[in-house]
Amino acid sequence: MMVEKLPSTYASILNALVELYMATKQPIKSKDIADKLGINEGTVRNSMVALRAMGYIESKTGPYGGYIPTQKALEYVKMPTNTVFALDIAPITINKLPTNLYVTGIELLDVINPFSNRALVRVIGDLKNVRVGDNVKIGPTANSRVIIEGVITEKNEGLRELVVSINKLVAIPKVKVEELMSKNVVTIRQDAPLREAAKVFAERKIRALPVIDDEGRMVGLITSSEVARAFHEGNLDAKVRDYTRRDVPMIDKDSDLYDAMRLMIANRIGRLIVASNGKPLGIITRTDVLNYLTSLD
Predict the structure, then answer these.
(1) Enclosing domain of residue 38
(2) Short-list 103, 68, 70, 71, CA closest to 87
(3) For residue 14, what is the domain's CATH number?
(4) How far is the C-alpha of 156 from the C-alpha of 30, rounded, in Å?
(5) How many domains does the chain fold into?
(6) Do both 207 and 276 map to the same domain?
(7) Residue 2 within any structural domain of the chain
(8) 198-240 per-position pLDDT tens digit
């Protein structure tokens, strides 16, 4: 099958779609792709119009709809010329503030000189407000899973390139969240009295409980702050279901650490319920992730 070379943004979006679809075997939402790549959801939707016209994707409508890669897409992501630089795309933070800039390529310079670690960074976006001396954080990159922190030492607006003096470079290893999660998670049934949840919080010294139905599947989460609110409102006889948060992100036990990080960032939360077939198995927190990364040599 003859497959054309795609622009790097299209390639990164297509690669993310295939990876998500192969993991779930279900239609993928544009938001899921945007969260995985750390880009705007509108960029994904606009790109999908072109990718569908070129025959790389099919779309399914309805509440359980989304995008499905075609055989042409599967062939494309296997192309030997579809290199890491073509697939990588990463957000840039300048002086701890988000920007509309994205990295499409990173080349390490001075690799044989341990006292002068620099990176040549290729960028999409307007560099007008970027200045030499700005602190920069890049990543994680979508494919090579790298985070770089440093200081901009050179800027070339014409070539859309930055040179960054690297202070920290972290490569996120491939490890399943199951290996890092806190196991033997405590759960509570949705029809339990709220007083029972309060008792568990006090005895276990925890702040959140997965709420399950009669078949053990997770239906939401209840927190100690919700229990406190209920008691403040005088609802002493309420049920757990009455104060359960329903829209709670979960992650499969076989998912990658990188996916957990993306999901926490996208939802601005510090913990994820780890599940298998909808049943909670454990919890992974931002602290678990940070402790693991800082333990790497």
Answers:
(1) 8-82
(2) 103
(3) 1.10.10.10
(4) 33
(5) 3
(6) yes
(7) no
(8) 999 999 888 888 999 999 999 999 999 999 999 889 887 899 9
Of 63, 82, 101, the residue that ends a domain is 82
Question: How many CA atoms are closer than 13 Å to the CA of 51, on its beta-carbon side?
Answer: 32
| Same structural domain, 187 and 159 | no
Give 263's pLDDT tier (boundaries 50, 70, 90). confident
Where a domain ends, among 171, 203, 218?
Answer: 171
Instruction: Tell me the C-alpha to C-alpha distance, in Å, between residue 91 and each of 61, 141, 147, 190, 286.
Output: 30, 8, 10, 40, 20
> Tokens 């998912």 map to which residue?
255
Please tell me the pTM assigned to this model. 0.52
Are both 181 and 269 inside the same structural domain?
A: yes
